[in-house]
C-alpha cells in the first residue's frame, strides 16, 4: 500500500482526520487545517502584490509548501473560498484568457441595459459588479472566441487541484444568475446565447474529486483526499464566526464591509445591492459596501492606525457626515456606481479625521441592517465581527452605538476556518 494512504487509514481509525480550508481574500491567501474537534493544526499565509491568476497560483503553492507534511498526510478534504464575483474566462485547457475582473470592478455598467432586457426586474444580476454582467462585458472583448467557460476565483483555484474544468458552487454562482431556491439555472438564462459558458453548479462543501497526483506527490497529500466545492469569502467568515441562530449577523471588516444576516426570509433587490445566499433551509441576507479598510489605507498607514486608534473617543461624536469610499461608486446599501465619496470638510486633526471616517462606516453598516429589517428580513439579534477590523475595539463601540444591537467578536475571525468547517457540516 502507498505509505501516504496507509498513514491516512490509520489516522481515520484514530479519528485524526484533518480538513484544510483555503481563503483567497482581497490582499492575501490563508490556509488553515482543523481536526475533527475543530482545533487548528496548522496555519499558513501568502501575500500577493497584485490580483492575477499567476499570483493566485503562486500563493496556492506557497501555502502548501508551508503546511507540515504530517498535516498534509492527514487531510481528507480541501475547500477554497474566494472573493465574490471575481471572475475569469478560461479556454478548454483551463488557461485564463484576457483580463480577470475583480469583485469590485464595475466596468460592466455599460451592459446593464442589455441585462435588463432579459433578466427579471431588480434581479441580483442587474448590477455592474455581478458575475453575469462581467461575462457579458468579457464577451465583447477580442479574445472571447477562445473562451470555453466562465469561472470564479475559487472555482479556478479548485480546478488546479482536482482537474475537472467547469465546476462552481451555488454560493459563487448566485450573482451569475443561478436560482438558489430551485437549484437550477432559470429559463431566461438557459435560453441565453452565452449559456454554454456557464459552469456546472454543485452544493457548497460537496466532494468533487480527489487531489491531482502531482499535488499529492509534491506535498505528501493522500490520494484519498477530496477537493470539495467552495464558497465566497464572506460566507466562509460567517461560518467561522459562531453565528448560528436566526437573527444572528456577521459583519466582515476587511478591505470592504460585508454583512450577512441569518434569516428565515429570503430577500433580493438589485436596487439596493441586496441578495440572499442559501444556507441549508435558511438564508444569508445581505450585501457588500465598498467602504472599509481600503479607504482607510488611502489616508493612514497601518502604523498610524495603531497609534491613533487609542486616542479616539467614541463618547464624543465628531459631527462629521462622512461616506468613506476609496473611489466613486458603492454597491450596498446604496447601489450606485457613480456615488461620490464624502470626506469633507477634512479635519486637520488626524484623530478627528479617523474617527469621522469610522463613524461614517458605522452609519453605513447601521443603514444596511436597518434596510434589511424594513424589507422584511428576520429581526437582528446581534452582530458578530470578522475580518481585520474586528480587532479595533473603539470601532466596535462606534458600531454598537449606531446599530443599537450587541456587537461581539466572532469566535473565529479567519474565513479559512469557515471554509474548512463547510466540509464537515451535515446536509
Write structural notes for this entry:
The longest helix is centred in the last third of the chain and has 25 residues, at 350-374. This protein has 427 residues and is of the alpha/beta class. The two termini are 33 Å apart. It is globular and about 60 Å long. β8 (167-169), α7 and β9 (200-202) form a beta-alpha-beta unit. The chain has helices at 3-13, 53-66, 69-74, 112-116, 131-138, 153-162, 187-190, 213-219, 233-241, 293-296, 302-308, 350-374, 393-403, 415-422, and strands at 18-24, 28-35, 40-47, 75-82, 87-90, 96-101, 149-152, 167-169, 200-202, 207-210, 226-228, 231-232, 248-253, 257-263, 275-279, 282-289, 382-386, 407-409. It is built from 14 helices and 18 strands. The strands form four sheets. Strands 1, 2, 3, 4, 10, 11 and 12 form a seven-stranded mixed β-sheet that branches.
Amino acid at each position: 500500500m502507498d505509505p501516504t494512504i496507509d498513514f491516512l487509514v490509520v489516522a481515520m481509525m484514530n479519528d485524526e482526520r484533518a480538513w484544510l480550508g483555503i481563503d483567497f481574500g482581497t490582499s492575501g491567501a490563508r490556509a488553515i487545517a482543523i481536526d475533527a474537534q475543530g482545533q487548528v493544526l496548522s496555519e499558513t499565509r501568502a501575500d500577493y502584490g497584485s490580483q492575477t491568476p499567476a499570483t493566485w497560483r503562486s500563493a496556492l503553492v506557497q501555502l502548501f509548501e508551508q503546511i507540515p507534511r504530517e498535516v498534509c498526510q492527514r487531510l481528507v478534504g480541501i475547500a477554497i473560498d474566494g472573493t465574490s464575483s471575481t471572475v475569469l474566462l478560461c479556454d478548454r485547457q483551463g488557461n485564463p484568457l484576457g483580463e480577470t475582473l475583480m469583485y469590485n470592478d464595475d466596468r460592466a455598467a455599460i451592459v446593464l441595459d442589455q441585462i435588463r432586457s432579459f433578466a427579471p426586474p431588480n434581479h441580483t444580476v442587474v448590477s455592474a459588479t455581478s458575475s453575469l454582467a462581467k461575462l457579458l462585458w468579457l464577451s465583447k472583448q477580442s479574445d472571447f472566441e477562445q473562451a470555453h467557460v466562465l469561472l470564479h476565483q475559487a472555482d479556478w483555484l479548485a480546478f488546479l487541484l482536482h482537474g475537472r474544468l467547469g465546476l462552481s458552487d451555488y454560493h459563487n454562482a448566485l450573482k451569475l444568475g443561478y436560482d438558489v431556491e430551485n437549484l437550477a439555472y432559470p429559463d431566461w438564462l438557459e435560453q441565453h446565447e452565452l449559456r454554454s459558458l456557464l459552469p456546472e453548479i454543485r452544493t457548497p462543501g460537496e466532494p468533487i474529486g480527489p487531489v491531482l497526483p502531482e499535488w499529492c506527490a509534491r506535498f505528501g497529500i493522500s490520494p484519498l483526499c477530496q477537493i470539495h466545492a467552495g464558497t465566497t469569502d464572506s460566507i466562509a467568515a460567517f461560518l467561522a464566526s459562531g453565528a448560528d441562530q436566526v437573527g444572528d449577523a456577521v459583519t466582515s471588516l476587511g478591505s470592504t464591509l460585508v454583512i450577512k444576516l441569518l434569516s428565515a426570509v429570503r430577500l433580493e433587490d438589485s436596487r439596493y445591492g441586496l441578495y440572499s445566499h442559501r444556507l441549508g433551509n435558511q438564508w444569508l441576507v445581505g450585501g457588500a459596501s465598498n467602504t472599509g479598510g481600503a479607504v482607510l489605507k488611502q489616508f493612514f498607514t497601518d502604523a498610524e492606525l495603531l497609534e491613533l486608534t487609542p486616542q479616539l473617543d467614541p463618547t464624543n461624536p465628531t459631527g462629521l457626515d462622512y461616506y468613506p469610499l476609496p473611489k466613486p461608486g458603492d454597491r450596498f446599501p446604496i447601489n450606485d456606481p457613480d456615488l461620490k465619496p464624502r470626506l469633507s470638510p477634512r479635519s486637520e486633526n488626524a484623530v478627528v479625521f479617523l474617527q469621522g471616517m469610522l463613524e461614517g462606516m458605522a452609519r453605513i453598516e447601521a443603514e444596511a441592517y436597518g434596510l434589511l429589517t424594513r424589507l422584511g428580513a428576520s429581526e437582528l439579534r446581534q452582530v458578530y465581527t470578522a475580518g481585520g477590523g474586528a480587532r479595533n475595539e473603539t470601532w466596535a463601540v462606534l458600531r454598537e452605538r449606531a446599530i443599537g444591537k450587541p456587537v461581539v467578536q466572532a469566535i473565529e475571525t479567519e474565513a479559512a476556518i469557515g471554509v474548512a468547517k463547510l466540509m464537515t457540516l451535515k446536509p
